TrEMBL record:
This is Class I SAM-dependent methyltransferase. GO terms for biological process: methylation. GO terms for molecular function: methyltransferase activity. The lineage of its organism: Bacteria, Bacillati, Actinomycetota, Actinomycetes, Kitasatosporales. It comes from Streptomyces viridiviolaceus. Keywords: Methyltransferase, Transferase. Its EC number is 2.1.1.-. Gene3D superfamilies: Vaccinia Virus protein VP39. It comes from the Bacteria.
Length: 284
């Protein structure tokens, strides 16, 4: 998704040559991705995702959101152009040979642009863009480009779900993310962190010609086994890639660890309450 929350998922503002992309993908899928499970669950409950749902997941990354929809019976298609390593993990999770006979679902994972995920049999009834925007300069524009390609693949009146970071004062992780701004090259704004704005999602939907049809907020705390786990998880989001490019990985690791210490509990775990927003819109 151009610069994205990981761009991974939160994945890949264009990873630098010094990043081990396979390790990054594993850290995302094993540590960070689960932090957004409450968001996925809230949306699926609200929209009654079930066996009649045909879902297109934009920026699907390693596929946890798709897996959760498939477990409810939905037919799912994931598409991503940012991380072949993450898509490889999504295929392991979703393709038929990975399912037992009780949990088999219709699933596809496509590398490339949304248009390559077209289903010739029927339009999609649900389009999701779960990679939260509102933390990287240019991420709203990138999402708009994805929607311009994706919404023609959906049925008329289909739900389109956009996700974003909540108000900075409601997100404890904001103080840690400011490390990315401090270390990034100030002359290169693309891919650098910026505070979420109140109307980020609504503005994207309006530019895409979508009709708002409800919204919500979901608590998504970031919890880690320790500082090392937290550093690895947060780096996997891609939000610190610009800082890595402008300085070096060791400096980013050091300052990120220091920023996490106020959130370390007595047992050594790290806990940061956050709130994420979602907007439900409808195709014309």
């Amino acid at each position: 998704m151009t610069p994205t929350l990981v761009r991974q998922h939160l994945p890949h503002a264009g990873a630098t040559p010094r990043v081990d992309l396979r390790a990054r993908a594993r850290d995302w899928s094993e540590i960070q991705e689960r932090m957004l499970v409450p968001l996925y669950e809230a949306v699926y409950e609200r929209l009654d995702v079930d066996g009649g749902t045909r879902m297109l997941g934009l920026g699907c990354g390693s596929g946890l959101a798709l897996l959760m929809a498939a477990s409810r019976g939905a037919s799912v298609t994931g598409v991503d152009s940012g991380s072949p390593e993450r898509l490889g993990l999504a295929r392991q999770r979703l393709l038929p040979e990975a399912w037992d006979t009780r949990a088999r679902a219709d699933a596809r994972v496509v590398e490339g642009a949304p248009r390559e995920a077209r289903d010739p049999a029927a339009g999609f009834t649900l389009v999701t863009a779960f990679e939260p925007i509102g933390c990287l300069a240019g991420d709203a524009e990138g999402l708009g480009e994805l929607l311009a390609e994706a919404t023609p693949l959906a049925e008329r009146g289909a739900a389109v779900v956009l996700a974003g970071w909540g108000p900075p004062e409601r997100c404890a992780t904001t103080s840690v993310l400011r490390v990315a701004t401090k270390l990034a090259d100030p002359l290169r704004s693309a891919g650098s962190w910026r505070p979420a704005l109140r109307d980020d999602l609504e503005e994207v939907a309006q530019r895409a010609g979508l009709r708002p049809d409800g919204s919500g907020r979901v608590a998504c705390p970031f919890g880690y086994a320790g500082i090392d786990s937290a550093v690895r998880g947060l780096l996997s989001t891609g939000l610190f890639d610009a800082a890595i490019a402008a300085t070096d990985p060791e400096q980013v690791d050091k300052e990120l660890a220091e920023a996490l210490h106020p959130h370390r509990r007595q047992d050594g775990t790290v806990w940061m309450p956050n709130v994420f927003r979602y907007l439900i819109a409808r195709t014309p």
